[in-house]
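Hi R.,

Here's the chain you asked about this morning:
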Amino acid sequence: MIVRSNSENVHECEVAIIGGGPAGSTTAALLMKYRPGSKVLVLEKEKFPRDHVGESQLPAISAIIDEMGCWDEIENAGFPLKIGATYRWGKNPELWNFDFAPPSEVEKLSRPTPYEGLRHQTAFQVDRAIYDEILLRHAESLGAEARQETQVTEVLRDGDRVEGLRLADGSTVVAKYYVDASGHVGTLRRAMGVETRPETKLQNVAFWDYWEDADWAIEVGSGGTRVQVMSQAAGWIWFIPLGPTRTSIGYVVPADHYKKLGVSVEDCYHEAIRNDDRISALVKNATPRGMVEATKDWSFTSSRGHGENWFLVGESIGFADPILAAGMTLAHTGARELAYTLLELLDSDENKDADWLKESLSESQLRRVKQHIRFADFWYASNGQFTDLQEHCAEIARESGIKMSPEAAWRWLAQGGFTNEKSETPALGTCDLPTLKQVVWLLTDKKGDWELNHKNVLKLNLRNAERKQMPVYENGKIRREDCWVRGQNRLPMNGIFKVVVDILEHESRIDRIHKMVLEYYGGPSSTESHRSPIKLAVQAMEAMINEGWIIAKIDKKASKISINRPEENAFVHLNRDNDPAGPKTME
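And the predicted structure, written out as C-alpha cells:
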C-alpha cells in the first residue's frame, strides 16, 4: 500500500503509473507478482468499467495474461475466441482468411480451457469495459493501489527528472519511478517535452459504434470466430464480435477524404455500412447503440521512450495503424518488459546496468511500433480495391520504396527486422516467414519465392557488424544474450539463429547444412511439425539472406534444395465458409 508522509497532501510510492488500461495494469501486476510488497500506485482518470476502442488481440497477449496470473478470469469472462481474420483486401476482391490455428482443431475445444496446447495459438476479442476492469482489479489483488477518477493535472519536473505529480484534488504523488501509460494523451510525454513524429503518410480517422444482436459471420466450436476486415473504395470496416450479443463495428478512412465528403460522422459511418453487402447482411437484425465515436488514427513514434526516472509505454510511446490489430499486443509486450526493467532498477540503488536497461527497453518498443507501421503501409499500398484512393496508396508505395513485385515487397518487409522481433525464431508479430510469403501473394496476386530455391552456397557475413548484448525477459529476471548488430538489424546468438551461425562457420553448401541441422536435432523424425527445427532453420537462413547476414550464391555443380510455394496453406487461404448468406449466431 501507499506510504503517506507527514503531510496528508503528499503520497509516496516506489512506482507511480499514469493510466489504468492494459499497459498500466500489466506493468503494475507483474511488478507485484515478482516483487511482493512493492509500493505501486495506478492513477486512472476515468471510472471503470468504460468502453474503449481496440478490442481485437493477437496470440502473444495470451502468454502475458497467463504470466500475470489472470488467464482463468479472462477465459471465464466468455470473450469470443479469435482464431484469425477474414479479409477482403488486396488486388483480388475475393475473401481470404488468416488463421492463427486450424479451425478443425478449434472445433474440438470445450471452453473454458487452461492456457496450454492450441490456446497458445489463439487470441481473444474483448469487450474493453470488462477486460480492462479485470486487469486493473487483478493488479489490485496482488497489492497495487489503484485510484480511479483521479486526474494528473501537472507534472513537477527538474530538468529531465520528474519530481512529482500534482493531482486534481490538490495532493501530490512522489515516486522513485514514473510511468506514462496514458495512451495518446501522453501526459508525461508532453510534460517532458518529448517530440513525436509521423512515420507514414497515412493520416486516418476512425468512426465506431457498438451493435446489439449482430450475426457472426462464422462460429467455430465453443465461441470461436474470425474478425472481419472489409476494404471499400475509400477505406475499410472492422467487425469484431465482443460477446454473445455485442459487436464493435468501425470505419477507417483517410482524414482528407472524409473532409471532402462534407457529411457528419454519423452519416459517413452508416453509409459505409449500408454500402458493404457483407457487413450490412450481418447487421440486418441488429441495433446500434446510437452514439458514433470518432478519433484520429495517425501512426507516430516518440523521439525517445525514457528519461532519468520516467518511462513511456503503450500508445504514449507510439501508435501503429489498427489494420493489423497490433495495438494491444504492443501495449502488453512493452509493459511486460517495462515491469522487468523496473524490477531490476528497484532492487539496486546503484545499478551499473541502468542505462543499458533503459535504452534496451526504449529501443525495443520503438522498433516494434515502426515495424508494424511499415507493415501497415504495405497493406494499404497493396490494396487495389481502394479505387477512390489510388493516388493516396501510390504515394505510400513511393514513400516506402515499394514496387509491388512479391520479391520487392518481401525484401521491404524483411527490412522491418524478422530476426529482431523474437530472439529464438524468425517472425514479425504473429507471422512467420512462410505465412508472410502467403500474405504477399494474396495482397499482390503474385506468388513470392524463396531465395533458397535459387542459391545453394551460403557464406556468413558479419562484416561491419558489432558484437553486443540484448536483453531476454524471463521469469521476472533479465538476462543478457550475445547478438550481432549492424545498422537497424540484429542477429541474436541463441535459438535457431545460433545453430545456423555455428553450422555456417564450418559449412557453406546447402545440402550439407541441411544434413547438419537434422543431425543437431536428432534426425529426420523431427521434421514433421510445422515448427520443426529444419523448417525453422530454413526460415532463419532466408531471413538472414534478406538482412545481409548471409551472402548467397549459386554453384551449378552442387546440389540444391526445393521449398514448396503453395498458393494456400492451413493458415492463409481463400475463404470458403458458408457466410454471410446463412450466418450463424452464438447461442
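The chain is about 35% helix and 25% strand.

Let me know if you need anything else.
M.
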